[in-house]
## 1
Amino acid sequence: MLVKENINENIYENLLGYSFSKCDVISLTKYCDQHSQRHDRTIKIILSRSHYTINDIVDNYSEKLIEEMYNHFINDPVIFDDEFKSKYELNDREDDRKDIDGQIYLDNRQSRIWHALGFTVYNALSDRWAEQYKNNIIIKKEKNISDIDSNLIPYTNIYYMKLDKHIKQEILNKNSIYDWCFPTSLEDLCFYKNGYCWLYSVAHEEICDIFCENEEEYEYLKSIGIKFVDDKFVPTPKEQLIYEKY
């Protein structure tokens, strides 16, 4: 059943306590960078023109660091070369377009820097998590998608992991079901019971769906603070349950 409001703070803790007692497996997703060559190039330029290392960026990632990078590199002629300008910036602007195109100019440049920094942090922290909990990983499933030329390209890596006290504590260290999001962690926390997905989430879209088994469970979840879109229990047909083999 679809959740209406964010699950955070005490409600998040209450839900996790119940989920830990009910479920035995979680999944977390790493999304692949579809523009990795572009972002790798940008990061290499940033590293070559600053005192930062990759570890510095990962360990000190914050709004302050992002702003510092914006201010330092927003007019860098190597990052924003002629190819970038021809693709993302308009040179012959009419007077009534200057403000709009000026904002597009800044947005495109900020986006290039932010995504390069974000994926650097995301990849490093995701890899650290996978290494730290490698003994908990049951299986890693890779999903591909087709590009415009019908070539298969990597899209996600989904880690299915056994719950233990260490992972439970990591999950409790977050403040919300939607905190499992790019760029500071793996994404989209899901819980599984006997191979079917009992709780499904897509953090960046703030979607959470809980497949309540019965009305008693639905009422209990409401009693701990979860607000559902439906104001009464609606059973999920068995054929709509998401099963995974691992």
## 2
Amino acid sequence: MLHQRASEVTSFDQDLETLVADMYETMDKAPGVGLAAPQIGVGLRVFVYDYADDDDNERRGVLINPVLEVGEIESADADWDTEAEGCLSVPGERFPLKRADWIKVTGVDLAQQPVSIEATGWFARIFQHEFDHLDGKLYVDRLAEPHASEAKAVVEELGWGKPGLSWLPGKDKLEG
């Protein structure tokens, strides 16, 4: 599921409302700042986010069938101190990844009302990260060397992608 492109949402019904409520609950318990439906085994183009900026303004919402416009990505190496990402699908690990500092994302909410957000910095990073999940990509799939090799070794060592393994929100330890 995590490496497949998610399908467009076509039915805005109670099942979708339940899914979004479950996603918020899972994200909050993890704890995380974003969660895409494919991360919980649902192949739909939906993600939730929750981010408090430097002024403690909380930005929380859902984007359904999002479209992402991405600014320029600098060519310099990613910085461990300012650009290290983690992911609920690769719990407990962090690696630096270069992302665009500006994005614009559009989509709809649960009421099918248009949503348009421009973001910079970490808020922009969250949208890029979650959008990648909808296209079947994990952040570790985008890493440059030597971090790509390090991440691959960790994923193999932990046995991710093998049947029978599970992970519960709020725990960084792999349990089978």
## 3
Amino acid sequence: MERFDRASTAAEVYQAGLNLVLERLKPERALIFYGYDDKDQLSAQVGHNLDPRTVLDMGDVSLGILQDAMEAGEAKMLVDAMQDPRFGERTSAVLSGIRSVLSCPIRGDSGDIEGLIYLDSRIQVAAFKQADLPWLNELAQAMQTRLSAVNA
């Protein structure tokens, strides 16, 4: 993932990661979270078809799905969130109309989760494939490696 070699700021790393996701996986919407705010919630850094400044306040994504992704601690896919018994009845999932979801935590050097890559589609069921999970893990690792270098 050579694109990160050119990134000299954290903002450039986030944007490069988002660009790679958009090119390869073509999600309807995407977010890259990194770091935590004063409420101990992940902080959205960049987004595609989602405003990172308001996404957690406006209910554009399901907080339950984000929490599930964080607790899983690994790349995770939902083929159809509306049919999943954990999320299909949740108001936020219903209101946002989320169908397919692909997410992957970004682990810091200590192994703690420092961020999350989140992709979804409100239109298409099974928008992502199981084969996308290893690539997304590699992307998350490459982002963390570059972020560690930028922040050193």
## 4
Amino acid sequence: MYNPFRNGIVGGTDDEELLAGALGGDRQALETLVRRHQPWIYNIACRMVLDLDEAEDITQEILIKLITHLSGYDPARGAFRTWLYRIVANHVLSLRRSRREEPLSAMTAGGDYFAALERIVDRRSSSMPENRVLAEESRITCITGMLLCLDRRSRMVFILGEIFGVGDALGSEIMEISRANFRTILSRSRGKVYNFFSQKCGLVDEGNPCRCSRAVDFQLKIGFIDPDRLISERGGIRVSEAVGERVNDLERRYSSKLRSLYGDGPFLDPPDMAEWLRDLMNSGEFREIFD
């Protein structure tokens, strides 16, 4: 799978070559460029807002920015991927608070996530569903939901650096901060997230109190789990498979069960936006741009 955060050309055609074709009026080149980056944009959006519908809207908004600003890309100022994912970062950082951020912010008032977790998890045996699908959905929701306890900039740095293996050189360019600052934010975010897992999560240590299945009732009640739109059913491969060698290198370096929690999570299949894109390109305003 194409990974925009790896060095070198993956997939046979460079972004800049596709960009030149798109600017020259080649709609197929533009569609290929969009299809190449759409999954990564969508997966970043999902982890920023923990909501499939909002993530789809965010992805469309970013793709419209990409399409309408292509001619503004200046190769002298950096690689295309840096320019594009800077647009992604700036867009998601400036969004209004998502519907999932509000309840989590309320539950973690004062920064005490541990205390909030103790309050919300139902530990009665009757709360442990036999349905493994919902238990898996609870696992994904909890792991991803932990990110919403980070401020947005820290969350974005964590998604780039920890989940997708982006190095500090590229990450600092995307976030428009220094490499040292990128590393510092990533280290602090990693410490905050992993402190929970090491002390509370039964996935890491069976002696820890938290069990994904026991949180299902609460997550259903507050709408974190939608039985009709399961995140677990949207992933064809794991994140580690999508990212490839970079994650493997990190796993060998740190040998951490905690790191594998995110690597084993689903790399979500984005909705098929091909028809939407074609309709967009044929619409009055956008047709003038492409022509």
